[in-house]
Amino acid sequence: MNNPGTSAALAKYLPRDFKSDLHPVWCPGCGDFGVVAALTRALAQLDRPAEEIAVVSGIGCSSRLPAYTSAYGFHGVHGRALPTAIGLKLARPDLEVIAVGGDGDGYSIGGNHFLHACRRNVDMLYLVMDNRVYGMTKGQPSPTTEADWECSMAPRGTGLAPFNPMVLALAAGANFVARGFTYDPNGLARLIVEAIRWPGFSFLEVLSPCPTFRPEQKDWKRLAHAGLQEGFGDVAQATAALFADDGFGTGVFYRGSRSPDLPAALPAATAGLSDIASQFQV
Fold first, then answer.
1. What DSSP string runs through 5-28?
2. DSSP string, 67-117
3. Which of 136, 259, 143 is nearest to 205 (CA)?
4. pLDDT over 90, % of the chain
5. Rounded distance, CA 213 to CA 97, Å?
6. Helical (H) or strand (E) element with 172
């Protein structure tokens, strides 16, 4: 906690209050380091203790993130972070639930869950670190990889148009859609706070370079630029802005007005496990 003799004495929490004792094992220069820095800064601004926050992930380099925070964490299986996080939020609406992952985990095996999480509009944040490659499994193309990117597993590129997660999030019903950049942790922290505080399902894409398998992404520092800040309230306008964007514009693209569609909490159970089991006896 804070030292009353410092200028930060008025702050109830500091970023270090949300960091675990584990040291990240990501490659040197990995963009995900900046995401941890931004997330802990954001959590310090929410005025909630770590035990009231849960971070849920799937599989992949970015999905290691829950272990590096002091919040409750759940490291699940590939592509299943969102159904786990949604179930947790419905069972414990008092918790602040944040799902995290990468482009491979979230848009490949987890793609169907992504679409329906946007549609269900549960009040939570989904933060995806996109490096356009499968980093943990040695550098094969992911759903967001450029069609002409060549590697040992795709010597001539995939020839497939990249998945556009932000446009799909809008079409599926996400209530807040934004993009941040890991090399701007302060700006990213502000976006995380905004996304968490906005009602309904918030989707935040984070440009997170992979210097190991995609060293050319170091140039993202030059390409990233400030885009929209306030966001449109109209889906058509936000969609047009995203199609016109070069993929490196940061900021809020959409702030919807949908209320969360599902109940804030599940009704209390009216039957025990033995009662349920008896219905399946033959």
1. TSTTTT-S--GGGGB-SPPP-PPT
2. GGBSSEEEE--TT-HHHHHHHHHHH-TTSEEEEEEEHHIIIIITHHHHHHH
3. 143
4. 64
5. 31
6. helix 165-172
CB 131 within 8 A of CB 217: yes
Q: Give the whole-angstrom CA distance, residue 8 versus residue 247.
A: 37
Other CB atoms within 10 Å distance of the CB of residue 19: 17
9-18, 85-94, 234-243: least confidently modelled range:
9-18
* Residue extents of the structural domains in the chain: 31-257
Categorize the per-residue pLDDT at 269 as very low, low, confident or very high, splitting at 50, 70 and 90.
low
| Residue 250 token pair | 């940061």
The dotted CATH code for 31-257 is 3.40.50.970
Instruction: Return contacts of 15-21, CB within 8 angstroms, 24+ apart.
Output: 15/40, 15/41, 15/43, 15/44, 16/40, 17/44, 17/50, 17/70, 18/43, 18/44, 18/50, 18/53, 18/69, 18/70, 18/71, 19/68, 19/69, 19/70, 20/67, 20/68, 20/69, 20/70
The Cβ-side half-sphere exposure at 117, using a 13 Å CA radius, reads 31
pTM here? 0.88
Rounded-to-integer distance, Cα 128 and Cα 207, Å: 9
Query: Do 41 and 15 contact (CB within 8 A), yes or no?
Result: yes
Cα 43 from Cα 50, distance rounded (Å): 8
For residue 193, what are its two tokens?
A: 């706070």
Return all residues near 206 (Cβ < 8 A) that are at least 6 apart: 31, 35, 127, 128, 129, 130, 179, 180, 181, 182, 188
Distance CA 177, CA 175 (A): 7
